[in-house]
Each structure stands twice: as structure tokens, then as C-alpha cells.
Design a protein that fits this description.
Structural class: mainly alpha
Order of helices and strands: HHHHEEH
Number of strands: 2
Helix content: over 70%
Strand content: under 5%
Distance between the termini: 104 Å
Number of helices: 5
Shape: elongated
């Protein structure tokens, strides 16, 4: 590890954010660097950061205001009620749409059965069941024996 790498990892090391292996490496580096190389910069930087770290840790945390806590909780409850009502209404919107689709299919099938089940010929007799394409202009012309 170089001094530059050590300096980049110094703050996470002091905050306890490094893994145990990395923390041990940092500890061995600072002891090796200060004893073998006599690196004044690393030692000075470490001492400054340690003192800042201790000051920040010992600062008393202000108490969270109770009125703000109650306001946040009430907003959450209002939003929960709003989104619950929105979910319920969106589910109920599907019911009329489903009913409309089913009714259109039912009445469409009734119309189709009446239309395509029997056909009254020109002489008033009921003919057999025709398929869908038998009611076109071509089939009527063919039945009548050609164009008139």
C-alpha cells in the first residue's frame, strides 16, 4: 500500500466501515509507515483525523422534535388511506367493464344466432342453416342463376 492509498482509506477506517482484513492492513501500514519510513504526512494526517473523529462522535445529538414526528406520522396515515381507497376504486372500475363485455358478447351471439340460423326465401319458405359467407352479394347472385 502506498501513502496515497492509505490516505484515501483513512476516513472509512476511522469510521469503522472497512472489513476486518482491510482495517488490519491499515493498522499495520500506519505502524510500519511511521516507524520505517518516518512519513510525517501520514502520521500528522492520521492524528488530525482521529481528533476530528473523536470530536464528531462526542457531539450530543439534538432530540428529534415531537411535533415534526407527529406530523410525519399523520401524513403517512393520510397517504396510506388515500392509496388504499385508490386501489379499491380501481378494482371496482373493472366490474362495469367486465359486465359490458359479457353483455355485448351475449347479445352479439343472440343476434348472430337469429341472423344466421334461418333465412326466409323469396317464396316464404325457411331454408337451411347457412354459413357466414352465404349472405354476400356473390352467393345471392349465384342462387338466382346469374345477373338479372
Amino acid at each position: 500500500m502506498t501513502c496515497n492509498e492509505y490516505r484515501k482509506k483513512l476516513i472509512p477506517w476511522l469510521d469503522g466501515e472497512l472489513k476486518s482484513e482491510q482495517a488490519a492492513e491499515m493498522q499495520s501500514w500506519i505502524s510500519e509507515c511511521s516507524q520505517v519510513r518516518h512519513c510525517v504526512k501520514c502520521r500528522k494526517l492520521t492524528e488530525e483525523f482521529k481528533s476530528f473523529h473523536e470530536v464528531f462522535i462526542n457531539i450530543p445529538q439534538p432530540e428529534f422534535p415531537a411535533f415534526l414526528h407527529h406530523r410525519i406520522i399523520s401524513e403517512i396515515k393520510n397517504k396510506e388511506a388515500y392509496y388504499h381507497m385508490k386501489a379499491v376504486t380501481s378494482r371496482w372500475k373493472a366490474v362495469p367493464a367486465t359486465i359490458a363485455i359479457l353483455l355485448s358478447l351475449y347479445f352479439g351471439s343472440l343476434i348472430g344466432v337469429k341472423t344466421f340460423s334461418t333465412q326466409t326465401a323469396a317464396n316464404g319458405e325457411t331454408s337451411e342453416l347457412y354459413s357466414f359467407g352465404d349472405f354476400g352479394a356473390v352467393s345471392t347472385t349465384y342462387e338466382n342463376g346469374g345477373l338479372e
